[in-house]
Specification:
The chain has 155 residues and is mainly β. It is built from no helices and 14 strands. The strands form 4 sheets. Strands 5, 6, 7, 8, 9, 11, 12 and 14 form an 8-stranded mixed beta sheet that branches. It has a two-stranded antiparallel ribbon with strand order 1-2. It has a two-stranded antiparallel ribbon with strand order 3-4. A hairpin with a 6-residue loop joins β6 and β7. The radius of gyration is 14 Å and the shape is globular. The relative contact order is 0.29. The C terminus is likely disordered.
Length: 155
């Protein structure tokens, strides 16, 4: 059975994703587009009053089939200054994929991960798709079902 947990901010659970041939440990959220799009940037937003649970290290991966993942970007040591802060990132190696996944490997000192939004901006008229609005691993069970969000159902 897989577990989702953090100890002093470091991921200690058993969720993994193989990305570019390397096993990456961390909880994840993914967005699925109806057809492949090219990522131009992405945004992560901390939760109101929850900076201690905000992600500080992650990988962004893309896939054409939802099972074989390619590394697009990685971040470490992200410092959140304010509640509901949004930080925009430009991927190091953008590609064209139908699936995008953020794999959270560390948080800001707490024992669970949370954020208000994970947004993907694409080359298609600079559209933005939000994976969710308010996610907390302490409130949602990732053990039985990782979270999936489809762009056709997210407005």
């Amino acid at each position: 059975q897989q577990t989702a947990s953090y100890n002093a901010g470091a991921y200690t659970g058993s969720f993994t994703t193989t990305v570019s041939g390397v096993s990456r440990a961390g909880e994840w959220v993914q967005i699925q587009y109806p057809s492949a799009v090219t990522i131009t940037s992405y945004e992560v937003q901390s939760r109101d009053g929850q900076n201690s649970t905000a992600p500080t290290a992650w990988w962004i991966a893309g896939s054409t089939n939802g099972s074989t993942w390619t590394l697009i970007d990685s971040q470490t040591g992200i410092a959140w200054q304010t509640n509901l802060q949004t930080i925009t990132f430009t991927p190091a190696t953008p590609g064209t994929y139908s699936y995008y996944r953020i794999i959270i490997n560390a948080v800001n000192g707490n024992n669970y991960a949370s954020m208000t939004a994970f947004n993907i901006r694409t080359s298609a008229s600079n559209t933005r798709i939000s994976a969710f609005n308010g996610f907390s691993s302490s409130r949602m069970s990732l053990i039985s079902r990782p979270l999936y969000f489809s762009s056709s159902s997210v407005k």
